[in-house]
Design a protein that fits this description.
- The protein is α/β, with parallel strands linked by helices.
- It contains 19 helices and 22 strands.
- The chain has an 8-stranded mixed beta sheet with strand order 10-11-13-12-16-20-17-18, sandwiched between helices. Strands 3, 4, 5, 6, 7, 8 and 9 form a 7-stranded mixed beta sheet that branches.
- A hairpin with an 8-residue loop joins β6 and β7.
- α9 packs parallel to α10, α11 packs parallel to α14 and α14 crosses α19.
- The longest helix is centred in the middle third of the chain and has 26 residues.
- It is globular.
């Protein structure tokens, strides 16, 4: 922190250029680093700012638009006569101008950290300040000391804040039965929130929700510590310390949902005849056993009562048992269930656990619009379905189906499933351990995939890069991962020139998110460290190479790769495989702006390679280039990235298979095995050196698009290959499969959550070989 004199701190910022009628310069920060503050921007600089009407002083010296102002330290009482505690009290009573309050809070905090002390109330003599308490305002509670038994104003506020947060956590835990236990993440410091929360209140009180969000986001630009992220951006208006308090983004709907939506289905296991279970709806599966054109449905249950009540309907040929087909019977004779739902799983000869997953999903999707909150599923009895894996598949399918995208509808009704009972034949009770394992894993995979889907479903004005960092932090706390969230200062310090170029056109700060999983048991010495890298473009306009208006609203999904990595990291932390995992997520917006990067620019990536930009809409590969290199620097020895990278992959493969590119056949073989177990579909695509000529640049090392419109997904993969060297690497292009355009019988339209299950299984595959 630079100082002009012994008693002053210089704070860099943009400043409003409005000149009042008496010749005074407006003391407020400018809007988005432009000419005027918010007030004078909206009035086009024509009137005096209300906060400057009474006094022209206040310790601010404005020299030019982009220079500094001087804020006297506490020893100079002529300009600052308010303590931190008094400022907070005056904010609460609305007796201080909010902009001035925010400036004072920030200056007082800077002064406190610089001097190693906090600011005492005015009633306290100035000479007692130094001896009052030897801690900074952001110190942990354990470091707070009292002086002569007297609790200072700041200590009291911090104590009351911590007590309030503890009560909120207890209430949340009591009101959320069945949710995962909260595990404290590394580096959490709740005391860090008090000053920045007061600053946020001061800003939002005068600016309203839209500009308040902008200001909070613009302040989020500096290097951060683990979990408690503190962001700033150089020369971008008023800068305040950030907290882990989630503020409402610009124009966000009033009924903003919880940040994590993973489903709260209460799953139960029973060993009995399903015909004897009293339930609102009993689902039983059927397959087509015929080898010819005429269907011959048969139930996958040995219950004679169920078989007898369904026999006339199965013989009528009205029900063909195709995948996802349903037949509902009300008040079935001989059954205690109020309804019997028969669900088709397709041909018997092709029956696998994946059809069972879809069947369970179809049962849940059938119940939701009918207001049925409880159901039971009869365990499918078939020799081709191993007990443990099919149990997991059934629970996964049920959780995945219990999800809809209408989060922000004001008339949204609760259609969720509250209780699911799996009714299992008594004769397989000897496999209880496998069934319980399947139940647990099914919950983990299902909720983790829904976590990723909920992130992708959020609109761009809610899920900014900063908010994505907050939600990654919250998820890390809940499952015991180590998480760091950095922003522009760290990106520049790491010389991530490609990532920095993409983000510079947006007023939203970027987020560089790093998650680490350390297994409870140390892996073998030769065990690899896996690196999961995700593209996190929270909204993609295309930048200067702007996209057409049609379907641009869908570009909120351009962070689906990062969501897949976050969902996978959550599942990994809960499954606890014996392998180290690092995840790097590069998140920002790609927006057109006067400072946005342009076609023709030459960028220098973190690896030192130079990149000629031909199209700013090919931005995902730029952020991934720096992310892949950084993951290797952090110790990753095997890499996988996931990204909604190219529309060309949809042209090549349609919307059923995602594209897989690799430089290692061994690594891809392991992934394809994991993908089959998970039920997700990937198709191998070429990524050989023959294609490299298509990304050669005439003025730089490489260019960010190919020389022709052919093979677009391949040239994108070849670009990424330049940044992995000899490290085994997989690239998953999920652009055509990350969003489902139409409802399916077993899954709603919207984000699919693809790659969460496959990546998690792939990681577990490495652990099993140790």
């Amino acid at each position: 922190m630079n100082t002009e004199t012994k008693s002053a701190i210089v704070i860099k910022r943009f400043q409003c250029r409005h000149i009042h009628t008496d010749g005074r310069r407006c003391a407020s920060p400018s809007l988005r680093g432009e000419d005027f503050c918010y007030f004078h921007h909206t009035t086009r600089g024509r009137v005096a700012h209300p906060s400057t009407a009474s006094s022209s002083k206040g310790g601010v010296i404005a020299n030019s638009k982009k220079e500094s102002f001087t804020l006297p330290l506490p020893e100079d009482r002529s300009a600052i006569q308010l303590s931190i505690g008094e400022v907070l009290q005056r904010i609460a009573s609305n007796s201080i101008d909010p902009r001035r309050a925010g400036l004072l809070l920030y200056g007082l905090q800077i002064a406190s950290l610089n001097l190693g002390k906090h600011i005492a109330p005015d009633s306290q003599p100035i000479e007692e300040i130094v001896n009052d308490a030897d801690f900074g305002p952001l110190a942990p509670q354990s470091e707070v000391t009292e002086n002569n038994g007297r609790e200072s104003t700041v200590v009291r506020i911090l104590r009351e804040w911590n007590e309030q947060k503890a009560r909120e956590k207890e209430l949340a835990a009591e009101s959320s039965p069945g949710t995962l236990p909260s595990v404290q993440a590394v580096g959490t410091n709740e005391n860090a929130v008090i000053l920045s929360e007061a600053t946020r209140k001061a800003s939002s009180a005068v600016e309203g929700p839209r500009e308040s969000s902008r200001r909070v986001c613009r302040s989020n630009r500096s290097t951060t510590t683990a979990i408690s992220a503190r962001f700033t951006r150089p020369n971008r208006g008023f800068q305040a310390p950030e907290s882990n308090i989630k503020t409402k983004p610009a124009l966000a709907p009033e009924n903003t949902p919880p940040s994590i939506s993973m489903g709260t289905v209460n799953t139960n296991l029973l060993f009995q005849n399903p015909a004897d279970l009293a339930t609102p709806l009993l689902a039983v599966f059927a397959v087509d056993t015929s080898t010819g054109p005429d269907a011959t449905p048969a139930l996958l249950t040995t219950s004679s009562a169920i078989t007898a009540v369904a026999a006339p309907w199965l013989a009528s040929q009205e029900f063909k048992a195709t995948i996802g087909e349903t037949l509902l019977l009300h008040t079935p004779s001989g059954l205690k269930a109020e309804r019997l739902l028969i669900i088709g799983l397709g041909k018997a000869k092709s029956l696998t656990i994946h059809e069972a997953r879809k069947g369970a999903g179809a049962a849940v999707r059938f119940c939701r619009p009918r207001g049925l909150h409880e159901l039971a599923i009869a365990f499918p009895e078939s020799e081709s379905l191993p007990v443990g894996p099919v149990t997991r598949a059934l629970i996964e399918g049920a959780f995945i189906a219990d999800f809809d995208i209408d989060t922000y509808r004001s008339d949204r009704k609760d259609q969720s499933i509250h209780a699911l009972t799996l009714v299992t034949p008594v004769q397989i009770k000897n496999q209880l351990a496998a069934i319980e394992l399947g139940l647990n894993e099914g919950r983990i995979f299902g909720t983790s995939q829904n976590f990723a889907r909920a992130l992708v479903n959020e609109p761009g004005n809610v899920l900014t890069p900063t908010e994505l960092g907050h939600r990654a932090t919250a998820m890390a706390e809940s499952v015991g991962l180590h998480c760091e969230v950095h922003s522009m200062d760290k990106i520049l310090a790491l010389k991530m020139g490609a990532f920095a170029a993409v983000t510079q056109g947006s007023s939203e700060p970027p987020a560089l998110i790093v998650l680490r999983y350390e297994p409870p048991t140390a892996p073998a010495g030769d065990s690899p460290t896996l690196g999961l890298v995700g593209k996190g473009i929270t909204f993609d306009t295309g930048g200067i190479s702007i996209k057409p208006a049609d379907n641009m609203d869908k570009m909120k999904y351009d962070m689906a790769g990062s969501a897949a990595m976050l969902g996978a990291m959550r599942a990994i932390a809960l499954l606890k495989p014996t392998v180290r995992v690092i995840s790097v997520i590069c998140s920002c917006e790609n927006m057109p702006d006067g400072r946005a990067f342009k076609p023709g620019d030459v960028l220098t990536a973190m690896s030192g390679k130079t990149i000629e930009v031909l199209n700013t809409d090919a931005e995902g590969r730029l952020v991934l280039a720096d992310g892949l290199h950084y993951a290797q620097q952090l110790g990753a020895t095997v890499l996988v990235d996931a990204a909604t990278l190219t529309g060309a992959i949809g042209v090549a493969l349609g919307q059923l298979n995602a594209g897989l590119f690799t430089n290692s056949d061994e690594t891809s073989a392991k992934f394809f095995s994991a993908a089959w177990n998970s039920g997700e579909k990937f198709w191998s695509m070429p990524c050989t050196d023959d294609y490299r000529d298509q990304i050669k640049s005439s003025i730089a090392d490489i260019q960010n698009t190919g020389n022709s419109r052919y093979g677009g997904s391949i040239t994108a993969a070849m670009f990424l290959k330049e940044f992995v060297g000899e490290t085994p690497w997989l690239h998953l292009d999920i652009a055509s499969t990350a969003w489902i355009d139409e409802h399916k019988a077993w899954q709603s339209k919207g984000p699919s959550g693809i790659a969460v299950r496959s990546i998690t299984e792939w990681v577990r595959g490495y652990a099993s070989t140790n």
